[in-house]
Write a structure and sequence with these properties.
Number of strands: 21
CATH topology of the largest domain: FAD/NAD(P)-binding domain
CATH class of the largest domain: Alpha Beta
InterPro entries: FAD/NAD-bd_sf, FAD/NAD-binding_dom, FAD/NAD-linked_Rdtase_dimer_sf, Pyr_nuc-diS_OxRdtase, Pyr_nucl-diS_OxRdtase_dimer, Pyr_OxRdtase_I_AS
Strand content: 15-25%
Radius of gyration: 25 Å
Distance between the termini: 91 Å
Helix content: 25-40%
Bound molecules: flavin-adenine dinucleotide, nicotinamide-adenine-dinucleotide
Keywords: Disulfide bond, FAD, Flavoprotein, NADP, Oxidoreductase, Redox-active center
Cofactor: FAD
Structural class: alpha/beta
Family: Belongs to the class-I pyridine nucleotide-disulfide oxidoreductase family.
Pfam families: Pyr_redox_2, Pyr_redox_dim
Length: 471
């Protein structure tokens, strides 16, 4: 068995692991990167990239039927499902070189394509190598959680790891789980010509503001997606190729089944006990600096059990680089992390929702709103369904919720504001180009200041007296 010594040994080459490896190697650290499956991890191969590519295909198909209001004859699109999947594969293939073994070896990283496991607090074994490192970074991600539903293991079901490789169009896709995976996949498949039923045990898009989530769900239902909320999936069986899910609201039969009920962290191969690394059901236990109970080891991204997004894994990577390479203190925050569900309309959130802000700040909370029906650009585009809500405490935003076209782009402004703890006046000071959707942010901020300015007797008195003295 060959022994390798290095500064940094990273387990997992997904969004988090790759970001640490690229940064650390380019700053002169001696880095070994272990990956037992595909370079790029979930995001590139089974997550963000294929889901956004499939949504894009669905968006094109949908637009073909939406021209009437603009004087364009609507047409029923002819969907070649396999060709839509070619688009998905092409998107993955185009991005893959950026995450590839060759690129990382070019940066000076030693890449070993095997699963690693700890054999002591200071050593990892991988294939025929034993690695000792000054610091370890566990970035092993997560996989789909498969719930204990009776009969599930006896039918063919899909998860995000298999659904993108279907080449034939599902006639009727049943989706268990109405979270972001379930709802993005529901709309993509519906727009590509599938019947879709979503079975959700609680509320669909339940992590978001219910007022805004309802706007998305109305649109999905209007497109023909059946969404059953407060509905338990009891048992599943296959009769002559038709999959039936018994639910608390009766049986649902379809041609294909997608299970999207959350994630399970990848820790089983790691032998964490040998390294003295604590974990629970949610993930590896970390402190504010992302250090585990073994001071030599950090855990980042999905496996750290917090918010599970690619940009969070990337953010964590920056914290680890600061701490492990420069020995500087660094703490991970969550109050400035945005997330977006890429349905049409998009749904975006940062910081506290209105309900969370009310619970945390009580009467000190003020909510500024702007409805997209007041946006000239939205009117010109014919896409006025949308709303921005800004939760403000003592002049500072503590959360923003946006639903509407390009909500994911619009939330970026608020990501800057919350990351830097700026006052709301920073947004009103900004001049936004006219006419753009991003004006909605400034208009929402304006809604906070308008009553203070325009319904204020003191302001009126000052203006009157100044006018008296002006030449
Ligand atoms: C369908 C879907 C859509 C999504 N869409 C978005 C989106 O639009 N935006 C967004 O921000 N997030 C999205 N996500 C979430 C995002 O994909 C994850 O948060 C992100 O991939 C987490 O990165 P990671 O580095 O923690 O883990 P991963 O990307 O899962 O990478 C972990 C890697 O570690 C490897 N590994 C595991 N065990 C070992 C071991 N013992 N040794 C070596 N290697 C190991 C795995 O093979 C894997 O390649 C989506 C997820 C899904 C499922
Ligand atoms: N656009 C994005 O950024 C994006 C897209 C997809 C996924 N993701 C990430 O991946 C994570 C996982 O997504 P997800 O949608 O699988 O998980 P989720 O936990 O967000 O949602 C799962 C849903 O399934 C429901 N559920 C659980 N058990 C059920 C059962 N037995 N029957 C019916 N419903 C059940 C839950 O109530 C919940 O609403 C997300 O939390 C997010 O971090 C992000």
């Amino acid at each position: 068995m060959e022994t390798i010594s290095c500064d940094l040994c990273i387990l997992g080459a997904g969004s988090g692991g790759l970001s640490v490896a690229a940064g650390a190697a380019q700053m002169g650290a001696d880095v070994v990167l272990l990956e037992g499956h595909k370079m790029g991890g979930d995001c590139l191969n089974y997550g963000c990239v294929p889901s956004k590519a499939l949504l894009a295909a669905g968006k094109r198909a949908h637009a073909m039927g939406q021209g009437a209001a603009y004087g364009i004859t609507p047409v029923v699109p002819q969907v070649d499902f396999a060709a839509a999947k070619d688009h998905v594969d092409a998107a993955i293939a185009t991005i893959a070189p950026h995450d590839s073994q060759e690129r990382f070896e070019g940066l000076g990283v030693r890449v070993i394509r095997e699963f690693g496991r700890f054999v002591s607090p200071t050593e990892v074994e991988v294939g025929e190598y034993r690695i000792t490192a000054r610091r370890f970074v566990i970035a092993t991600g997560s996989r789909p959680f498969v719930p204990p539903i009776e009969g599930l293991d006896e039918v063919t079901y899909h998860t995000n790891e298999t659904v993108f490789s279907l080449r034939d169009r599902p006639e009727h896709l049943i989706i268990i789980g109405g979270g972001p995976i379930g709802m993005e996949m529901a709309q993509a498949h519906r727009r590509l010509g599938c019947a879709v039923t979503v079975i959700e045990a609680a509320s669909a898009l339940g992590k978001d503001d219910p007022e805004l989530a309802a706007i998305v769900l109305d649109q999905l239902r209007a497109e023909g997606i059946e969404i059953l909320e407060e509905t338990e999936a009891g048992s599943v069986w296959d009769f002559e190729g038709r999959i039936t899910v018994e639910t608390s609201k009766g049986p649902i039969a379809g041609s294909h089944l997608l299970v999207a009920v959350g994630r399970q962290v990848n820790i089983d191969k790691l032998n964490l006990e040998a390294a003295g690394i604590d974990h629970d059901r949610k993930g590896i236990t970390v402190d504010a600096g992302l250090r585990t109970s073994n001071r030599r080891a950090y855990a980042i991204g999905d496996v750290a059990g917090g918010m599970q997004f690619t940009h969070v894994a990337g953010y964590h990577a920056g914290i680890v680089i600061r701490s492990a390479l420069f020995g500087l203190p660094a703490k991970a925050r969550t109050d400035h992390i945005p997330w977006v569900t890429y349905t049409d309309p998009e749904l975006a959130q940062i910081g506290l929702t209105e309900a969370q802000a009310r619970a945390a700040h009580g009467d000190r909370l003020e909510v500024a709103r702007f409805d997209l029906s007041g946006s000239d650009r939205a009117i010109a585009e014919g896409t006025t369904t949308g709303l921005t809500k800004v939760m403000v405490v003592k002049g500072r935003p503590v959360g923003v919720s946006i639903v509407g076209p390009q909500a994911g782009e619009q939330i970026a402004l608020w990501a800057l504001v919350l990351a830097n703890k700026l006052k709301l006046s920073a947004v009103t000071n900004m001049v936004a180009p006219y006419p753009t959707m991003s004006e909605a942010g400034k208009r929402a901020a304006g809604a906070y200041f308008s009553p203070r300015l325009f319904e204020n007797p003191t302001v009126k008195r000052i203006v009157k007296s100044v006018q008296r003295f002006l030449p």
